[in-house]
Structures are given as structure tokens and as C-alpha cells.
Design brief:
Blueprint lengths: L11 E7 L6 H15 L3 E8 L5 H11 L3 E6 L5 H11 L4 E5 L10 H7 L5 E6 L6 H18 L10 E5 L15 H11 L4 E6 L14 H19 L12 E2 L2 E2 L3 E3 L5 E3 L10 H9 L3 E3 L12 E3 L2 H7 L4 E3 L5 E4 L1 H63 L15
Parallel strand pairs: 1-2, 1-4, 2-3, 5-7
Antiparallel strand pairs: 4-6, 5-6, 8-9, 10-11, 12-13, 14-15
Amino acid sequence: MNTPSLSVAKSVSAIFPAFNEEANIESAVHYAHRIISKLTPIFEIILVNDGSKDRTRDICNQLANEVSNVRVVHHTRNRGYGAALRSGIEQARYDLIFFSDSDGQFDFREVAMFLEQANAYDIVAGYRAPRHDPPHRLLFAFGWNTLVRLLLGIRIRDIDCAFKVFNRYVFDRIRIRTVGAMVNTEIFAQASKFRMRVKEIPVSHFPRRQGKSTGGSVWVIRKAFRELNKMRRVLSAITPRQLGLFREHVSGLAAADRRVETNQSYGDSPTSKRFKPIDKASKAIFLLKPVRFLFEKEIDSDATRQFGLAAEDVEKVNSDLVVHDADGNPYRVRYNAVNALLLNEFLREHRTVEQLKNDFQATVAKQQREIKALTETVNEQNSQIQRVNAKLQTFRRKPSIRNLKHPYASVL
């Protein structure tokens, strides 16, 4: 298959979750970079190392340093496929979001067809034709797809195929709560409820040549069934007003994490403009005392001193302003949400000052008009007084009749 040379119009964020993929991640990234760079001049590749215990972390860091447009997100522990995918999507900056696995089982040249179809559809989903996996995984996949269709009404041929393209706005509506293998099911259940347009395209699938897949492990399957039962309850409560991952509602604020990348710089997820004031929380945030802290060595081997808020303190103000770990403990401050809250509080105070200023100016203008009217009245009255006074002066200058002398008086 020849690589298309036609450049697509939209920019692309390509996400590759990876767990113990030291044997595959490097070749997968180089291959994807070579293909995507021919399709669009604006792109990025986001590698999400989900707490790998092999050399995946080091290889990802090396790729980020050596290959242009490659960024890395590290999880300090294995949090699950759904959590890894969410971390990657949160960091995505471009119009189209493509994700695939790092195991080398797909032909990335086929992504060109998906990017073209994304102009006409909200989501473009691949289905493996044929699928080259061990028999036990094929059996489980068949049963799982059948169960999902029956329980959730999702009619997707290969729901867990890791070759999909989403228009960025899809995640203005769709949220990701699942941390495990149910993430694709969750996404398409919401897409179905919101009547999003989905195009399915067959993709080539090859046997895994190196490394070990975890998708068919007993632990992953058991966790998927638990999440499926929970998901049925969650989906029944979804409303058309739900805010998605990019506009996630944090008591009216935009929710976004900050993660430390390989260069120890902060990476921000996009924030929503749809937030409203939380007076009590914002005032309490102002009272919090920033602290100095160090990241764990596996995140920052240089032990660079950082400055910020303690998640435990912020949680006391508003639990939605922090990210919680799998056990429900405060894990990280949602700095974008805090910033949005404080910014909104500033804007609210600014609006109050502007209103007072406008009211004052209106009062001054009214008083000026009244003073002007009063001045005109006084001037008019003064003019009348001057006219009357002038008439009196004229009358006084006229001679009296008694003092008039007859012209023939001397003759007489």
C-alpha cells in the first residue's frame, strides 16, 4: 500500500497508550511519525506511559528528545487503558484526535482514509478484518461485543479496535470516567445517546510480533464486567446538557489536569469558557498557603523544587478542584480549574466595579444636567431682573410735571 501524499486540511493529535511496550514503542512511533507527517504539516504524537515496569519510560523520554512533535505523559503507576487514553486526550491540542496501540499490529498508512472521512463524520472507527489474535481473545471479543449490543444497544462491529479518529468537538460532549478496558464502550454508548455520526472502516490487523498483550488477562476481563454493570447506571443518568472531557463541569468550572512531562514543564489541557462564579470557594482559595514540594524521583530525577498548592488543602475547599486516585484520595490539583475560578472571580469583581463606575457616571451626568437646567433658570431670572431694573432707571430720568416751566411765564 502506497503512502498518500495528499495533505489533509486539519491538524492531528495521535495518541499511543503504552504499558510495557519496550520492544514495540520505538518502531511504532517512528513509523507513525513518518506517515502522519506526509498527511498534515500540523501534528503531534502523544505517548502515554501507563506505569510501565520495563524500559518503556526511558524509550519514550528518548523519543521525545530526538523526534520532533513527540510529547510524553507518564503515569507513576499502572492506572489502566481508559485512564491512559484520557490522559492523552486531555493533552491533545489539534482538530482531529487519532489513537492506536503501540504494539505494531496496525498499518498506520491506513489512517489517511480515516482523516478524510472525519470531514463528514463525527467519529471514524476501524474494525479488524480479519483479526489476528489468539483464539481465546477472539472468543472473548465475540462474547463481549454481543453482550454490549444487548445491554447498551451499541451497534459497532469491533468496539475495542484501537484504530479510531475523533473530531475534537466530540469530547465537548463525551466524558471518560472509565479507567480500564471499558473505555471504548463508554465512548460509543455516549456517542449513540447523542446521535453522533459514526463511520466504520475495515483496517488491516497483524499478529503481535513482540511483547505480551494484557487485554485478555483474567484481571482485565473481571474489571471490564464490573465497569459494565456500573456503566449501565451511569449512562441512564446522562442528559443532553452533559459537558464532555474538554468542558468537564467542576461546579461550573472547566476541569483540566496539569502533568509533568519529560522536560519538567507543565502541560495544560484546554479549558472551557463555560464557568460561573463560586464565591465561597474562590475566597477560600485566596486564603490557601502555597507550599514547596518535590516530585517523586521517577518523575523528576533532578529533584527540582516546585511551588504550588497542596491537593489535600484544595480538596477541603472544593473536592472537584482536585484529581483523585483510584482509592479516592486527593492526587493532584486541577490548576486550570483553580485558575478559571480565580479569573472568573476577578471578572465578577471587575464587572461590579464597572457597574459602580457606570452608576457613578450616570449620577454625575444627571446632576450635571440638573445643574445646567438650574443655571439656565437663574440666568433667565437674572435677565428678567436686569430688564426690569433698566426700565426703572429710564423712568427715573424723566422730569416731573410739577417742575415743568411754561414758556410764556415771563411774559405773563
